[in-house]
């Protein structure tokens, strides 16, 4: 039986309904209310598993209004399950505000584990998984997006991103500017669904592939961390000297920066700024 005055954070399948856990089904049947990101979407899941618990909407744009209402219901003794359209609530999905409010009100919160796209993709990526950081969705505005990437340009841990299909190519282009085109990357698409795909290669190769193959479905991007030894091996003066040599061989500043970025894994933009400081 579920506990009263308790919020259950219930993980649901990413796509394949066979990934639904027995515990999740039981909890959804026993709680008083299900707070769902999209009641129509969750309604199909509930119908499949013959769950008749009433729903209430809880999504990004009504979270501020809905959170106090749900807290009040919990304090009166209701047991509430929070679900999103796929995966674990509060992980790049609605839920954080409600969990935080429950903690502040000393309301019990119990997680019912389920799949997350980030961990599912990382486990199958073949990219180092012992140490990683999760960035979720990057900002949609170009300036903010570049600023976020620049903050992690020297990160040596594996990087995990979520991306919508219509922004995949732009994101890959930004990756080249910040990480260089030779950094390994895995693009996981439509995880656990019929058209699941893992594409593996370098960032530069990924751009070529997706220029010819229109990105479709939801993407999880796993980018290998930078090589700390390579990045720290050359001082600024040494980098300028290497750039000078390349320019003396006939390369433009832009070409020299691009070439050195491929060799050192240092962002091309950073090297180009150094190249501009070199006197004719």
CATH superfamily of the largest domain: Tetrapyrrole methylase, N-terminal domain
Quickly name the level 1 CATH class of the largest domain.
Alpha Beta
Strand content: 15-25%
Radius of gyration: 23 Å
How many H/I helical runs?
Answer: 12
Number of domains: 3
Please write the string of helix (H) and strand (E) elements. EHEHEHEHEHEHEHEEHEHHHH
Q: So what's the overall shape?
A: elongated
Low-confidence stretches: none
Instruction: Report the span from N to C terminus.
Output: 77 Å
CATH architecture of the largest domain, by name, is 3-Layer(aba) Sandwich
CATH-defined topology of the largest domain: Cobalt-precorrin-4 Transmethylase, domain 1
Q: What is the arithmetic mean of pLDDT?
A: 92
Can you summarize the main beta sheet? 5 strands, parallel
Helix-strand category: alpha/beta
The count of strands amounts to 10
Strand order of the largest sheet: 3-2-4-1-5
Helix content: 40-55%
Give an account of the 3D structure.
- With 280 residues, this protein is of the alpha/beta class.
- The chain has three domains: 6-115, Cobalt-precorrin-4 Transmethylase, domain 1, CATH 3.40.1010; 118-226, Tetrapyrrole methylase, C-terminal domain (Methyltransferase, Cobalt-precorrin-4 Transmethylase, Domain 2, 2-Layer Sandwich); 229-276.
- The protein has twelve helices and ten strands.
- The strands form two sheets. It has a five-stranded parallel sheet, with helices on both faces. It has a five-stranded mixed sheet with strand order 6-7-10-8-9.
- α3 (63-75) packs across α4 (96-104), α10 (236-248) packs across α11 (253-264) and α11 (253-264) crosses α12.
């Amino acid at each position: 039986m579920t506990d009263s005055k308790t919020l259950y954070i219930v993980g649901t399948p990413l796509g394949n309904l066979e990934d639904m856990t027995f515990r999740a089904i039981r909890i959804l049947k026993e709680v008083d209310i299900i707070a769902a990101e999209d009641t129509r979407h969750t309604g199909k899941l509930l119908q499949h598993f013959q769950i008749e618990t009433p729903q209430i909407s809880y999504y990004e744009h009504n979270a501020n209004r809905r959170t106090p209402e749900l807290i009040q219901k919990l304090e009166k003794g209701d047991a509430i399950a929070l679900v999103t359209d796929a995966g674990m609530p509060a992980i790049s999905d609605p839920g954080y505000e409600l969990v935080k409010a429950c903690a502040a009100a000393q309301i019990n919160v119990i997680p019912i584990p389920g799949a997350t796209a980030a961990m599912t993709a990382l486990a199958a990526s073949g990219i180092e998984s012992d140490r990683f950081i999760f960035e979720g969705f990057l900002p949609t505005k170009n300036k903010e997006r570049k600023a976020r990437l620049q903050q992690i340009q020297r990160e040596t841990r594996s990087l995990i991103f979520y991306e919508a299909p219509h922004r995949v190519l732009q994101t890959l282009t930004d990756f080249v500017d910040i990480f260089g085109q030779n950094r390994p990357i895995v693009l996981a698409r439509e995880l656990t669904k019929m058209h699941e795909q893992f594409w593996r290669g370098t960032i530069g190769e990924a751009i070529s592939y997706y220029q010819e193959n229109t990105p479709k479905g939801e993407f999880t991007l796993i980018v290998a961390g930078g090589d700390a030894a390579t990045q720290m091996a050359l001082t600024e003066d040494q980098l300028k000297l290497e750039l000078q040599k390349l320019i003396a061989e006939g390369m433009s500043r832009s070409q020299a920066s691009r070439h050195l970025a491929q060799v050192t894994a240092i962002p091309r933009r950073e090297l180009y700024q150094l190249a501009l400081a070199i006197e004719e």
